[in-house]
Amino acid sequence: MAAPSKQKTRWHIVVFLAPAVLVYTAVMIYPLFNTLRLSLYSEIDQERIWVGLQNFRTLFGDAIWSEQFWNALANNGWFFLIHMLVQNPIGIALAAILSSPRLRFSAFYRSAIFIPTILSFVIVGFAWKLILSPIWGIAPGMLDAIGLKFLYQPWLGKEEYALTTLSLVSVWQYVGIPMMLIYAALLSIPDEILEAGECDGITGMAAFWKIKLPLILPSIGIISVLTFVANFNAFDLIYAAQGALAGPDFSTDILGTFMYRTFFGFQLQLGDPHMGSTIASAMFGIILIGVCIYLFGIQRRLRNYQF
Amino acid sequence: MTQTRRIPGTAIAAHAVLITYTIIALFPVFVILINSFKTRRAIFRDPLGLPTEETFSLIGYQTVFKQGDFFLYFQNSMIVTVVSLTLILLFGAMAAFALAEYRFKGNTLMGLYLALGIMIPIRIGTVAILEMMVSTGLVNTLVALILVYTAQGLPLAVFILSEFMKGVSDDLKNAGRIDGLSEYKIFFRLVLPLVRPAMATVAVFNMIPIWNDLWFPLILAPAEEVKTLTLGSQVFIGQFVTDWNAVLSALSMAILPVMVLYVIFSRQLIRGITSGAVK
What we know:
The structure holds 2 protein chains of 2 kinds. Chain A is mostly helical. Chain A has one domain (63-305): MetI-like (MetI-like fold, Orthogonal Bundle). Helices cover 71% and strands 4% of the residues of chain A. In chain A, the strands form 2 sheets. Chain A has a two-stranded antiparallel sheet with strand order 1-2. Chain A starts with 10 loop residues before the first helix and ends with a helix. By secondary structure, chain B is mainly alpha-helical. In chain B, helix 1 (8-35) packs antiparallel against helix 13 and helix 4 packs antiparallel against helix 12 (229-239). Chain B has helices at 8-35, 40-45, 59-67, 70-101, 107-119, 126-135, 142-165, 170-178, 183-194, 196-212, 215-220, 229-239, 244-274. Chain B has 13 helices and no strands. At the A-B interface, helix 1, helix 3, helix 4, helix 5 and helix 8 of A face helix 1, helix 4, helix 5, helix 6 and helix 7 of B.
């Protein structure tokens, strides 16, 4: 471990660290804090002036802004909730089935189910847009085939369904990640524990609920926090499928698209980097709260169950 | 499939569930691909049918090649991805080696500092990144994208690689030192070859998000000559919304390179995820 020479500056350490630290600091950390700083400024007559927390007051207090912000936040919350309630249970179920011993073709299923995850949001967004489109008629046609045509709606075009539909598309795309992580966690459970359970008569479903599930809770915790960060930072899918306006009537607007619109402007509204930074700071705060809840609240408690 | 003799019912149910989900996962890709080879009329009349002799058509692909500069986009994506990955691996491995190998003041602190970026998405800093790129004249260059992706990939790379480097035997390195190798030679000649599997994992983890990113190309490099494939297909499809042949062909062409990468690297990717590197 330790290098012997202690007296002189060991330049090689500096050389090894410098490139990574420089790029990381200059392109990631500095802009991050600079964005937080910019949220405290505003532009008046083409001059940047300090306004303190005024931008935040506008964002939360001004009716025009706050209505959009809370709408985006609520949509984002719903987006996250659907991921937690649909993506993770499906992922866990698939992993549990895949990890059963003596299952044939499990490598094939694993690779195939992971394919949507590697596709870009642009492909996924447009592909589903086409499939769900009433013009093309794949979705209504398929519902017709099983006699459920009356259920068909232009889901992406209706305010009350659009966000849920897009959340489910995102779930479809990302189910592979919880599946893989849980699968890895399930494989790492020592056989002795399962055998001990078998001796006590705990097999099949009971073994899953009583032995495996408590042991994979830490992985479920990690997946939850990864999902949280990814969801509150999402943008691409909504942008690819519904555009920057996150239609219909902002019903699919989430924090990422809201920030993009504010920062770059759209149609008649001019872009405003300072309000953009303010929204980015709010997103930063939300993500930080989520990560802290995980690190200090959930992860500690979960550790107790590990061996 | 009757291999699991004890409980064939369970095995059949398991396969039924997995087959169903595999179909759900692959169906959209399949529909896009088959329809991209059909005439416009066949696309609408029989969207689920395979292209036959009379419905086969390459008109969509012809439009794509005539109107969009997909080779340029592909080349841009290639350059950005390959250069970013190289830098992530080189810089990440160097920093990871320093953290894993030497004891110095601030080692732990430096490790924590570099690990911050694992949880905090770089997108939060977009406003300031754009300002910086504008003031340094890097806007609309591939360099801007490469810098951003390198910074984005470094935290996880350092984290994973330093875990691996701690496992490299000290005896080997000390033998090198006794033979008079410099610390640089020890790193490049002895340690790097030994952590190659971990480097592959890091590369595969970073490759797909970089290739698929839409946000930074849209913001930092939207000009025609530096568009990446993801942004290029997004813009192209946006312009040709009503030309279904072109849209389907463009989608298929965007799917193709990622699928090729996935087929080549899927084993590495899956092994990387399942070996718990993400923790």
